[in-house]
């Protein structure tokens, strides 16, 4: 790919107006040191020295978009609890529009706590209660989207399977995006039955692709056979989802792009070192969407998403990529 062309596309990210829709969470990180094994069980004793909090789930996808564009807003539901309060404070501090975030006193805000020691994640603790979205909440979200859509360039749906996205809401999002000719990208969840027909692009990971396609992952270390199995899953997903393009992320094997009527396009990983994959999918969908809104072709958008993912996995925690890092990465291609 032409690095100059990709750099020009990235330079247009700042002008894009993006709404991120999905399940909201709070990411908590406990940073500590390990000096001994517990006498109670064969596990390390972590002495916590600091803690930090970040927007999680769809809010992390919005945080990734916000690194490139000030016109970033978020739609979802947070509990009327302390974790929800902290999440809203983080969004405000990060310049992410939260006017479309509903609060629900009957819902607990999902909190994912990661314990980090010696630059490695020791354990993750999830505190959550999956609560389906109510008809009234869906009606409000659809009305909000209809009001917002004229002032948007694109919509990102980050479905974490926590209950905010149901089929009626998904159908409404697709209908509104198509009616107004806006970019719609989806990061799907494998354990829901939601159909995402008609999106501009859908970005599952390998496991999600196999799950939705109904194909068993190959039990082999042969890279060529593994890629061929992903190709079979991708071709089936193109038929199931009827999407403009499909980008399957493959971890250390990079990404595989599918477009109707074209041969699959493999993009090798750009990662040099992998410290933490937390939130890498959020980075990929954010950059993919921004690039498509900036008039990139699916291949160009996939190249930029792959580059951004390769940068973010070299950082600890649910990190983001800056425009400077993306531009620097393009210069060394």
Please name the defining characteristics of this protein:
333 residues; alpha/beta; UDP-N-acetylmuramoyl-L-alanine:D-glutamate ligase; nine-stranded mixed sheet; 10 helices; 36% helix
- In DSSP terms (H or I, runs of 4 or more residues), the helix count works out at 10
Question: What class, by secondary structure content?
Answer: alpha/beta
Question: Please, what is the CATH homologous superfamily?
Answer: Ribokinase
How do the helices and strands follow one another from N- to C-terminus?
Answer: HEEEHEHEEEHEHEEHHEEEHHH
CA-atom Rg in angstroms = 20 Å
Give the strand line-up of the largest sheet. 5-4-1-8-9-10-11-12-13
- Terminal CA distance reads 9 Å
- Characterize the main sheet: 9 strands, mixed
Q: Averaged pLDDT, please?
A: 92
Silhouette: globular
Low-confidence stretches: none
Total tally of structural domains? 1
CATH class category name: Alpha Beta
Structural description of this entry:
This protein is α/β, with parallel strands linked by helices and 333 residues long. It has a single domain (3-331), classed as Ribokinase (UDP-N-acetylmuramoyl-L-alanine:D-glutamate ligase, 3-Layer(aba) Sandwich), CATH 3.40.1190. It is built from ten helices and 13 strands. The chain has helices at 3-10, 58-66, 82-93, 135-148, 167-179, 206-213, 223-241, 280-293, 298-312, 323-331, and strands at 18-22, 24-37, 44-57, 72-79, 97-104, 110-117, 120-127, 154-158, 183-187, 201-202, 245-249, 255-258, 265-267. It has a nine-stranded mixed beta sheet, sandwiched between helices. A four-stranded mixed beta sheet has the order 3-2-6-7. The protein starts with a helix and ends with a helix. The model has no long low-confidence stretch (mean pLDDT 92).
